[in-house]
Amino acid sequence: MSEIVKSQASPGDVVVVSANGNVTNWLLALIEGGIPSGSILLEYFTGLQASVGFSQEILKQIQLDVKAIETLIEQSHYSQSDVLAYGEAWSSLILSNVLSLKGCKAQAIDSCRCLKLNTDTYQYPFDQSFADKALGQLYSSEPDSVFVVTGYIALDQELNKTTLGRNGSDFSATALGNLINAPSITIWTDVSGIYTADPKIISKPLLVESLTLCEAQALSELGANVLHEKTVLPLLSYKGSVHIKSFDKPNEPGTVVSQEITPTNRVKTITFKSKLNKVCVHSIDELQARRIQKKIAEKSIASYVNGYDITQHKLTFYIEKSDVFSVTSTIKAMQHYPSVLLSNMTLISLVGQNIRQDKRIIERFIRRLSSFDTQEIHYPNNSHSLSVVIDDEHAEGLLRDLHTSFFYQEPTVPIVVLGYGNIGKKVIELVDKGAERLGQSLNRSIQILAVANSKRFVCESNGLALDNIDGLLSNGNDNTDDQIFSWLERYAGRELIIVDVTASKSISDRYKGFAENKWHIISANKIAASDKDYARQVESVLEDNRRIWKKNTTAGAGLPIQASIKNLHEAGDQIEEVSGIFSGSLSWLFSEFDGTKSFTNLLEVAQDNAYTEPDPREDLSGNDVIRKIRILAQQLGFEDAPEDFEAAISDELLEGELVEFWQKSEAINTYYQGLLDQAKAKDGLLRYIATLTPQKLSLKLEFIDKSHPFASLNPCDNVFQVISAWYKDNPLIIQGPGAGREVTAGGVLNDLCDLLRGH
Ligand SMILES: NC(=O)C1=CN([C@@H]2O[C@H](COP(=O)(O)OP(=O)(O)OC[C@H]3O[C@@H](n4cnc5c(N)ncnc54)[C@H](O)[C@@H]3O)[C@@H](O)[C@H]2O)C=CC1
Ligand SMILES: N[C@@H](CC=O)C(=O)O
């Protein structure tokens, strides 16, 4: 902690400390007779001194203090607060000493010098003028020091030391921050901030980046551990920002709470409070009910789902099991008769500013509850939360269901199509035709929010009308500098699917950003997926954010080669080799090219049929197949094998710009006529064959025999021959069209369905 303070604090900053480790519990145990002496404290601080290296004088002081505490307790001459206050006092002495030893001038300050409560309860506010005077003196006498102030302790109205209850140090910190008008307050804790749900129950929940004050308050009232109700009280009048950060990962951004945060009107987090008991007090009027609630609050006991039934004259609420005795005796002392109706109940609440004003959120919440046997739904007084009570046994299941529903799935999934060429147009046409049926079968509707080509984009938050995208695009917004992404910023953090049907490197370079924005990706574009290091980074961010990257069409268009490899792997097969013809355009060209039409004529037809890449040289050079090989190699675990790739054309024919390429038609035709002649001479066929093994990734232009398994293909077919432990003597063959508008767009739709099903 001292390293964090040293690197982050400047002279004049206030650091509020709580007691080290278990010290408060041990002091309490000493008072209550749970432990006979303070030797455990002495052992602890001796060990701490050895590891942290604070001065021997402080250790001696602590030893004297522990002796004095033992004597006080023996003679029963003590107040509990006085004894408990030692924990924080020792912390502040140790931290200020360690900081000074590290060259950061620091002063230990007793918070009773500056924090005085105005009331005799734990309620805010503290005395501003008392704090101003004390802190003014401190600042003028020690202008170049960091002040290490004891948390948890303050003076009460009669100037007696008092403790501030559970999470008292955080309370002291926000109170002091507010009193001194600090621009920001950081609460250092053992978690990286506030999560969308308890990480002990939900694996890898999402970090909540920011909370409005209303959200923080609602959260704290629902018993959130990181943000206690009292901690939030001073923030109601505080103008700065509060950061909740982890001392283990100080460079991570954590969660920020501030009045400045713009409300998103969405569910930000789901709280979970288990082991609750329901208490009921019958035959009381509303005033008596309020008195009971006030008394319980004064005892610093949290009660939830408080409700007074005017017709039945009864008050009901939930409390933690450990508070039952204290609460029931308090109520009995007020001459009322409480009964404990239910035990082992859990309160689960959605929190987000104004969520109760959103009918869709309420409906979705109720729909999720319908498959669970819940006790009661509660609509708290504020409009920022929505709660349900369920028995402990079924609570985790409900939390998981709600968490998936509210953080990983939108009821209407927004889709953005990047690329409006051969494949993009067909994808939109298929979505337009099939969206309703798709929505029904998946129980989630889909909506295309935006479509872009390299020049223009169109967008509509409520979904574009898909029957006239051409018309819309002709008057669309400028996209020459990828301006669509400025518009898309509003969807950062929300579930959205990017469909990349461009062949663009600049779009591929944005995949990591898509993943960081918590967007799913479906790509037909092969560039990102074929770069193994980049693909790994993208996958890792997506996994952390529980998002999916589907890329089936990047090899074999609509053929299920990637899914088959994955299934065989998962089922335990060992794939030894995958070989075949992976280029749809070259497969078509080598089938059709018999010398009657020129090669470049056929190449133009292949381009019109959308078999080639936007730039057909990518096919002839081998680049397109090389990308497919690299994509499959990653799935096979062969990605580090040496590569031996050969182009399907000579290098000089590829030189220059695309227009120059077409100007070289004659030379290109002569080149391919030469290859055809060679094939005929051998009574063979020309094929561009890829082979993947753990030892080698290769791509070769070959003359094969007419009886070869890769000889009899339909024009444009791809063939994948898989040899594995299970398919050894008789290989698995996946064969069919490997390029074209329908098959590829159909493959993209398949990916979309799989993605929406969570595969
Ligand atoms: N044609 C096929 O059979 C198959 C194609 N693919 C892949 O699908 C992708 C698209 O192929 P086609 O539709 O044939 O290409 P295309 O050239 O017809 O369409 C590409 C579209 O992307 C747009 N674009 C380029 N840069 C952009 C940017 N920065 N932002 C937004 N849009 C941008 C272009 O304006 C164009 O509308 C390629 O990556 C290709 O490798 C994958 C499997 C099969
Ligand atoms: N240009 C590609 C299209 C599919 O990926 C090919 O020829 O196979």
Automatic annotation (TrEMBL):
<dbReference type="GO" id="GO:0009090">
    <property type="term" value="P:homoserine biosynthetic process"/>
</dbReference>
<dbReference type="InterPro" id="IPR005106">
    <property type="entry name" value="Asp/hSer_DH_NAD-bd"/>
</dbReference>
<keyword id="KW-0791">Threonine biosynthesis</keyword>
<protein>
    <submittedName>
        <fullName>Aspartate kinase</fullName>
    </submittedName>
</protein>
<dbReference type="InterPro" id="IPR011147">
    <property type="entry name" value="Bifunc_Aspkin/hSer_DH"/>
</dbReference>
<keyword id="KW-0028">Amino-acid biosynthesis</keyword>
<keyword id="KW-0067">ATP-binding</keyword>
<dbReference type="GO" id="GO:0046872">
    <property type="term" value="F:metal ion binding"/>
</dbReference>
<dbReference type="InterPro" id="IPR042199">
    <property type="entry name" value="AsparK_Bifunc_asparK/hSer_DH"/>
</dbReference>
<dbReference type="InterPro" id="IPR001341">
    <property type="entry name" value="Asp_kinase"/>
</dbReference>
<comment type="function">
    <text>Bifunctional aspartate kinase and homoserine dehydrogenase that catalyzes the first and the third steps toward the synthesis of lysine, methionine and threonine from aspartate.</text>
</comment>
<feature type="domain" description="Aspartate/homoserine dehydrogenase NAD-binding">
    <location>
        <begin position="419"/>
        <end position="547"/>
    </location>
</feature>
<dbReference type="Pfam" id="PF00696">
    <property type="entry name" value="AA_kinase"/>
</dbReference>
<dbReference type="InterPro" id="IPR001048">
    <property type="entry name" value="Asp/Glu/Uridylate_kinase"/>
</dbReference>
<dbReference type="GO" id="GO:0009089">
    <property type="term" value="P:lysine biosynthetic process via diaminopimelate"/>
</dbReference>
<keyword id="KW-0511">Multifunctional enzyme</keyword>
<keyword id="KW-0520">NAD</keyword>
<keyword id="KW-0521">NADP</keyword>
<keyword id="KW-0808">Transferase</keyword>
<keyword id="KW-0479">Metal-binding</keyword>
<dbReference type="GO" id="GO:0009086">
    <property type="term" value="P:methionine biosynthetic process"/>
</dbReference>
<dbReference type="InterPro" id="IPR045865">
    <property type="entry name" value="ACT-like_dom_sf"/>
</dbReference>
<dbReference type="GO" id="GO:0004072">
    <property type="term" value="F:aspartate kinase activity"/>
</dbReference>
<feature type="domain" description="Homoserine dehydrogenase catalytic">
    <location>
        <begin position="560"/>
        <end position="752"/>
    </location>
</feature>
<keyword id="KW-0418">Kinase</keyword>
<dbReference type="Pfam" id="PF03447">
    <property type="entry name" value="NAD_binding_3"/>
</dbReference>
<keyword id="KW-0560">Oxidoreductase</keyword>
<dbReference type="GO" id="GO:0009088">
    <property type="term" value="P:threonine biosynthetic process"/>
</dbReference>
<comment type="pathway">
    <text>Amino-acid biosynthesis; L-threonine biosynthesis; L-threonine from L-aspartate: step 1/5.</text>
</comment>
<dbReference type="InterPro" id="IPR036291">
    <property type="entry name" value="NAD(P)-bd_dom_sf"/>
</dbReference>
<comment type="similarity">
    <text>In the C-terminal section; belongs to the homoserine dehydrogenase family.</text>
</comment>
<keyword id="KW-0486">Methionine biosynthesis</keyword>
<keyword id="KW-0915">Sodium</keyword>
<keyword id="KW-0547">Nucleotide-binding</keyword>
<comment type="pathway">
    <text>Amino-acid biosynthesis; L-threonine biosynthesis; L-threonine from L-aspartate: step 3/5.</text>
</comment>
<comment type="similarity">
    <text>In the N-terminal section; belongs to the aspartokinase family.</text>
</comment>
<dbReference type="InterPro" id="IPR036393">
    <property type="entry name" value="AceGlu_kinase-like_sf"/>
</dbReference>
<dbReference type="GO" id="GO:0050661">
    <property type="term" value="F:NADP binding"/>
</dbReference>
<dbReference type="GO" id="GO:0005524">
    <property type="term" value="F:ATP binding"/>
</dbReference>
<feature type="domain" description="Aspartate/glutamate/uridylate kinase">
    <location>
        <begin position="3"/>
        <end position="246"/>
    </location>
</feature>
<dbReference type="GO" id="GO:0004412">
    <property type="term" value="F:homoserine dehydrogenase activity"/>
</dbReference>
<dbReference type="Pfam" id="PF00742">
    <property type="entry name" value="Homoserine_dh"/>
</dbReference>
